[in-house]
């Protein structure tokens, strides 16, 4: 997640990363602050995340968690 956030952020792409891990949250927060990336990280479960605005995402990348989201239908519905 850090590599994608850093690479995309350096290209000026706004990235919103979701994680339930405190370690990932801390790592990404520090990375974003140090490099002043146009990104944010939110500590929340993917299936519980709600956009606070009407804004939609251009793309969604799920990195390394599909095996932990066994209800694939719910995941795909959430992405749409």
Short structural description:
39% of the residues lie in helices and 12% in strands.
**How many β-strands, per DSSP?**
2
Strand content: 5-15%
Query: Could you give a short account of the major beta sheet?
Result: 2 strands, parallel
Q: Which regions contain 5 or more consecutive residues with pLDDT less than 50?
A: none
Which secondary-structure class do the elements indicate? alpha+beta
Determine the number of helices (DSSP H or I, runs of at least 4 residues): 3
Describe the structure.
The protein has 80 residues and is of the alpha+beta class. Helices cover 39% and strands 12% of the residues. It has three helices and two strands. The chain has a two-stranded parallel ribbon with strand order 1-2. The longest helix is centred in the middle third of the chain and has 14 residues, at 22-35. The radius of gyration is 13 Å and the shape is globular. The two termini are 21 Å apart. The relative contact order is 0.18. The model has no long low-confidence stretch (mean pLDDT 88).
Question: How are the secondary structure elements laid out?
Answer:
Blueprint: H1 2-10, E1 15-19, H2 22-35, E2 39-43, H3 72-79
Helix pairs in contact: 1-2
Characteristic terms for this protein:
80 residues, 39% helix, single chain, 12% strand
């Amino acid at each position: 997640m850090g590599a994608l956030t850093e690479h995309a952020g350096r290209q000026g792409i706004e990235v919103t990363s979701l994680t339930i891990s405190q370690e990932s949250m801390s790592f990404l927060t520090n990375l974003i602050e140090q490099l002043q990336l146009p990104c944010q990280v939110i500590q929340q479960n993917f299936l519980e995340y709600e956009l606070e605005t009407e804004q939609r995402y251009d793309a969604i990348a799920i990195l390394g968690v599909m095996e932990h989201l066994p209800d694939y239908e719910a995941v795909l519905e959430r992405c749409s």
